[in-house]
Specification:
This protein has 199 residues and is α+β, with helices and mostly antiparallel strands. Helix content is 27%, strand content 39%.
């Protein structure tokens, strides 16, 4: 009798796991479809962050980084110092329909490897939503779709994303280096591409 009860419990657990998997996968696919249907509502050009080099020496860079939402409102900021002379910004880019969604991922340098860089997700994570994409007029389905993609990007669970890649923008000391006390905008384009513009 006990073996039969254990057997029934095992069967019930397996059934629950299978149901949960298909429910979760189906829910995810539904969110992706809604995101695809509304992706054109994203602004074609966006500035998720700006930065300024506060101090620069032969072996370190002190910078101030500020984050902005889709309404160009400042949402967060931080100061940090990195070893090195060349600064890099790493983005995680997801291709949806004919648009590219760029998530700021890390800051590192020629002396600080990307793996040891400063992770940026927490600076614009508001209630699990990527605040750099927030707008007062955002469509609900677009909001939910971006929230789901952001969750997958943050956790590295990218099974349901078809096309994604990393993209880095940086200065090269030998050519042109970021000038201290100058504000730079990191501009993303939904048609593809990320650039740094001196303001």
């Amino acid at each position: 009798m006990k073996k039969f009860i254990v057997f029934l419990l095992v069967v019930a657990l397996i059934a629950a796991a299978i149901y949960g998997y298909f429910y979760f996968t189906g829910n995810q696919q539904e969110k992706i479809k809604k995101l695809e249907a509304n992706i054109a509502l994203l602004k074609e050009t966006h500035t998720p962050l700006r930065f300024k080099i506060l101090e620069k020496s032969e072996d370190s860079i002190k910078l101030l980084t500020k984050f902005y939402n889709a309404d160009n409102e400042e949402t967060n900021k931080f100061e940090t110092t990195l070893g090195g002379q060349e600064l890099s910004f790493d983005f995680y880019v997801v291709h949806v329909q004919d648009r590219y969604i760029a998530f700021p991922a890390k800051i590192f340098s020629n002396q600080v490897a990307a793996a040891n860089g400063i992770e940026l997700y927490s600076y614009y994570d508001k209630d699990a939503y990527p605040e750099v994409f927030y707008s007062k007029e955002i469509n609900k389905d677009l909001y939910e779709g971006l929230k789901d993609v952001f969750r997958q990007v943050k956790t590295g669970q990218l099974d349901s994303l078809n096309n994604y890649f990393g993209n880095m923008v940086h200065d090269i000391r030998e050519f042109k280096s970021f000038i201290p006390q100058t504000v730079y905008s990191v501009v993303t384009h939904t048609k593809g591409g990320i650039e740094i513009i001196e303001e």
